[in-house]
What does this fold into?
Amino acid sequence: MKMPMEQCLVDDFEVIENVDLGEGWFRLDVEAPSIASTARAGQFVQVRIGSTDDPLIRRPFSIFDVGPEPGPEATMLRLLVQRVGPGTRAMMQLSAGDRIHLMGPLGHPMPRPALGEDGVLLLIGGGIGVAPLYFYCRELAAEGSSLKHQVLLGARSSALLIGIDAFHKIGVETHAATDDGSCGFHGNVIELLEEKLESFSDPRQVAGIGCGPHGMNLALRDIAIERDLDFSISLENYMPCGFGACFGCVIEGPADQPLRYRRVCVEGPCFPVRELPEKF
It folds into this structure.
């Protein structure tokens, strides 16, 4: 398996636009053809702001979109960012013409499950986890894929359903779950998933990919294992380097496989649920 650093680029790129999405979220559009043209859904970039060592460590961000369309002609990279610390606050202050230091694309793309004509792929997201799922849907549309897919998004309230409008605009069947019932299903996205699964008579007709907060990922793993479903989960572990050198993002590997520990940034970030440990 190739190390991500053998295939990625490290350089400064120009910011095209910084779009305020409200509730502490924003979208950063960057002119980065050398990354955008090769990026796949599920991959990520490592970001550093400015020329100083503050913050010292790059931060990983899933690729939200590339434009104008996914594929070798793409020139623009889009990142979905939530303001949580000094690094993201600095990113929020970037304007058109500013420079941003990126390394990527890193990690492996999300899988394409083998489903029959009646099969449906469920994409389950929460918080920043919506980013790679949107890119995944954009790829399917650009390829003219016949894979049937639905998106399930969860948040505490309708105001925090970041990205839901983007899914609607590209025509993806999208269902929302909110803790306060302000939009869609009244409850969390895992409860919505359980309700949705009851509509499938044959578990072989459904596969899934999830990406979201740690608690959501754990619950998703347990449901998939219990029901024997073909699900994968994209992890959002802290990745100090992003290319496997620091071993700061490792998870325990399956006992019957040669890798005792696997680096989320290199062997992942998306793993089949059966390969995930009870605690990850």
User: Anything to note?
Assistant: The longest strand covers residues 9-22. Residues 33 and 75 are 4 Å apart (CA to CA). The mean pLDDT is 91.
